[in-house]
From TrEMBL:
It catalyses: hydrogencarbonate + H(+) = CO2 + H2O. PROSITE patterns: ALPHA_CA_1, ALPHA_CA_2. Residues 25-286 form the Alpha-carbonic anhydrase domain. It comes from Ceratitis capitata. It comes from the Eukaryota. This is Carbonic anhydrase.
Amino acid sequence: MVLKKPLFFLLHLLAARQIADQSAPEWDYRDTNRWIADYPTCGGAQQSPINLDHYNSVGSLKPALKFRNYAQPLAGRLTLVNNGHTADIMLPETIRGPRPTITGGLLNGIYEAQSVHFHWGSPGGGRGSEHTVNGYRYDVEVHIVHKNMIYGNVQEAMQRPDGLAVLAIMINIADFPQSFYPGLNRVFNTLPRVRAAETNATINSQLSLNHFLGDVDTRNFFAYRGSLTTPPCSEAVTWHVFPRPLLVSRDLVIIHPHNHICILFIFDADCKLLRAPTEKRRVSME
Ligand SMILES: [Zn+2]
């Protein structure tokens, strides 16, 4: 694994409780070089995140992504959890019963939504997305984590190369955004209530997964096979990354939760190393 500065904040693909192996070594962002020692897969050849480059990408006619039950309200109120690494939302079923699912793109099979979490910039330290596009880094990256339905649970899916699918939605801060995303706003406004690790807060609104997608252009994506971005770095993730960002108000992200969440979760400005690809990856672009 090649690690480069500068660094940015926060990643983590799955809530700590999903990785619930009590014997697993502790990890944090202060010394990511230790990750390989404790988790050898973190030095693998298919590690994420990467820079997505139009020049090095292979244009291909993949099927469009299809979303089911993304517009259905999720059952009950969502709980935002500070799990010590990120702000994570475990997703319930929808009020109709089934979970939201995705198919198409680079996926074979049906993947059902499990959780949502965020990657932010650090105060004074820079932007926070994990993936970059043509070397450009966005302010925030939202991950919606899905599990292949043929596997019983996330733990099992993490052991399989086709186990997980993650959608990455980019957000940039704007002074005068043209759109308003009420669902994201409610999530952001809840962040200050989970400043301490192992705390949680209820989001006082009924949300659907479409609230997290906003009006992102889901026809335009990069897709590639990669990994969890934090230990155990399992190479089990099919990524679909939407390069056109949502624009949100500067007040909402910077003044309010942005500073809090980085201070809280990471303790200093240097939060996360971008992991460079070890080789030129063939990435398909729809
Ligand atoms: Zn993530």
